[in-house]
Amino acid sequence: MIRNSINLLTKKLISSTSCQRTRMRCFSSGATNLVDVNVNDKTGIAVVTLNRPPVNSLNLELLTDLSKTLDELESNRSKGMILTSSSKTVFSAGLDILEMYNPEPERSKAFWTALQDVWLKLYGSPYPTAAAINGHSPAGGCLLAICCEYRVMVNDFTIGLNETRLGISAPSFFISSFRNVLSTREAEKALTLGTMFSSDEALKVGLVDEIATDKADSINKCENFLLEFKKVSSMARAFTKQSLRKKDLEELENNREQDLQLFLFAINQPIVQKGLGAYIQSLKKK
Ligand SMILES: CC/C=C\C/C=C\C/C=C\C/C=C/C(=O)SCCNC(=O)CCNC(=O)[C@H](O)C(C)(C)COP(=O)(O)OP(=O)(O)OC[C@H]1O[C@@H](n2cnc3c(N)ncnc32)[C@H](O)[C@@H]1OP(=O)(O)O
User: Per residue in 256-278, pLDDT tens?
Assistant: First the structure.
């Protein structure tokens, strides 16, 4: 018992010493630790790292961890969040296709509800948000990035909502957050074609705000954006952001059950299952 307490104390001391060195506070989001959080004590900005190898595909557990992290940031009155990934080549591969293939009813409900929760919390967060996109970012990965207010993308990767290429439609809250960033014309073209943009194309069309040379550069650029808000009242800032996004947020808030039922209906269609099965095989054959 005593030895356990000493071990615990030693672990705490070691972890607080390594965090002090970089003036960071570290906390993890919960039981499964698929999200790491480092808060810079000087700026109050949290770097939130998706950590579900190999490709950060968003399954129920990762979404649940991310959702808890967003709650913690809000209750700690975070000064800002930078979302990034622990992978060297993938920001997030989007929704975990295995959550939608041969779905188990209760789990698919929990999965979609967790995704709705994450979207509502991230898109509507009172604190400022930026995405350091340090790898490919298709579909649900792109969704996380476009929920943020600013995007910095490392060169040589791709981003976009490619759902139509999988034989499915992007859900309405994916579309509303895409339209918050792109013109309706550009959004319609990209969504119907399922376009994956290169970093340069994404910059040109306005899907990302800056290009970075590497992950450190992307985090630095996100931090510079977030630090601009030091000059602005956080209450006025949050109110303005939430007013601009209010219609989109209410649309999902008021139709969560309908959105869930539409998702369950869609993924249970034999033609969708066939398409998802073929897509999984094509990924495995690569
Ligand atoms: C209300 C709704 C109404 C109607 C619509 C209904 C349904 C619509 C619902 C939701 C919309 C869907 C949103 C999505 O996000 S779907 C996911 C789309 N994602 C993709 O298309 C990306 C696929 N992946 C890739 O292109 C590449 O993996 C990537 C470029 C990201 C990385 O390439 P890399 O060469 O580095 O890795 P791989 O060898 O390809 O992959 C490694 C490993 O990981 C597996 N993998 C990849 N992506 C996924 C994924 N999204 N889900 C699950 N698993 C994935 C891949 O198969 C490999 O596995 P293994 O061979 O076993 O190692």
Answer: 999 999 999 999 999 999 999 99
Residues labelled as active-site residues: 95, 140, 162-163
Please indicate whether residue 212, judged by its CB atom, sits closer than 6 Å to ligand 1: no
Q: Is the CB of 144 under 6 A from ligand 1?
A: no
CATH superfamily of 15-285: 2-enoyl-CoA Hydratase; Chain A, domain 1 (3.90.226.10)
Cα 166 to Cα 55, 126, 162, 268, 274, distances in angstroms = 18, 34, 7, 15, 10
Q: Is 90 in the pocket of ligand 1 (CB under 6 A)?
A: yes
Q: What is the distance in A from the centroid of ligand 1 to the CA of 232?
A: 39
Q: Which ipTM value was assigned to this complex? A: 0.97
Write the pLDDT tens digit of every residue in 6-46.
Answer: 333 333 333 333 343 334 566 655 556 899 999 999 999 99
Residue 227, number of CB atoms within 10 A of its CB:
14
